[in-house]
Amino acid sequence: MSDALHELDATDLAARLRRRELSAREVVQAHLDRIEQVNPAVNAVVTLDPEGALVAAAQADERLARGAEVPPLHGLPIAFKDTHLTRGMRTTFGSPLFADYVPAEDDLVVDRLQRAGVIRLGKTNVPEFAAGSHTFNPVFGTTRNPYDTSRSAGGSSGGAAAALAAGLQPLADGSDMGGSLRNPASFCNVVGLRPTPGRVPPHPGGNIWDTLAVPGPMGRTVSDTALLLSAMAGPDPRCPFSLETPGAAFRVPLDRELRGLRVAWSPDLGGHAPADPDVLAVLEPQLSVLEALGCHVETACPDLAGADEAFRTLRAHSFDLTLGVLLDADREALRPSLARNIEQGRRLTPADLITATTVRSRLHLGAVDFFSRYDLLLAPVSQVTPFDAELEYPTEVAGRPTETYLDWMRSAYLISLLGLPALSVPAGFTPGGLPVGLQFIGAPRADLAVLQAGHAYETATRHGRRRPDLPTT
């Protein structure tokens, strides 16, 4: 049985562990073996502590053997995103400046997951300072797509998504400013949720008022993703916008009748995010699945006028606040495109920031009104399919040349600006075998409803059950 443990869903593994049908040591060792066999092909896990993981697994087994109550994620192994601080284990942010940095504390999300019972394996790869949706950096190199290792795994949680798809871990943490949970989930045929800001409080953080970037969960199924969210979510007084709903509210069955649901479909987000034809060729037939589930589907989109400039302005300002000191210390140590983003933030005027904030406020209120008429918005997760891993970013989208590494990410980051929960669910494959995700977007704070809709769609299609065929060493 141990040879197939890496293929089991996290919810199944958790149940078997609690029933003592499996030991945490067996589960951890099976995933360590899988990492040894296939990680060289994908480069998803970049720091590994097998000895520490096995010791922690043995301690978890001993607690259960004593009859002690164990937490909901008891014995499940996970490698944390390499932008999340891990006490006593290096956190590089994908930057040579932090290649040997070992934090003295855990990020709140890391602490919560370990308290929920996960076993720390190591760290997953990221782009430099999580900037961009293609995972490569000068410290560890490029993470490759398990379905085609010549292609990108997406980012910035690309190592996490590739590790999930390749069976290196059953759950994965991540974060999302402009699509960093959703894009890699789409590229790697797994599930990624960008929660409502405040659902998973970010701490520590350079700007505690920043609601653009949020931590969130990934899984191979929607149920697994909800399980991980249940351990991540909940209020924290250090986050001024954290939501009061406890995480346990998401540790519930997701089955829900979708009949009568009012669903809007926007293939290009009102003309603001045109997608490549091969993306739409996969997604448009999926609308019939929602209709067969009883949903009323029509084409519609909330107002997004000015969203692109507002997002880029607020993102650049955030980069200047958090990374500007590094630019001053050693500009040459930063990726040129990242340095330009920080410099863009420095050129912003108070009027620029006021305009961006005003636009964001208007668009959020417009989205609230939109969701009084619709229960759900569907859109592409990514405007492109997984691209050549040797590129920094795609050279064109929908026939138009790209000028920056952000240009192909609008279908994700325009939704980030509105503060809405958004879920990437596997939606099928191109004729060439590349995964494509469908984005389920809900009203503010409607995270559970989004998960329920995604679960119903996933159950009806089972696209996520297709696993990559990877070489083993």
TrEMBL record:
Amidase domain segment(s): 26-451
InterPro entries hit by this protein: Amidase, Amidase_CS, Amidase_dom, AS_sf
PANTHER family in UniProt: INDOLEACETAMIDE HYDROLASE, TRANSAMIDASE
Name listed for the protein in its UniProt record: Amidase
Protein species of origin: Streptomyces nigrescens
Classification lineage: Bacteria, Bacillati, Actinomycetota, Actinomycetes, Kitasatosporales
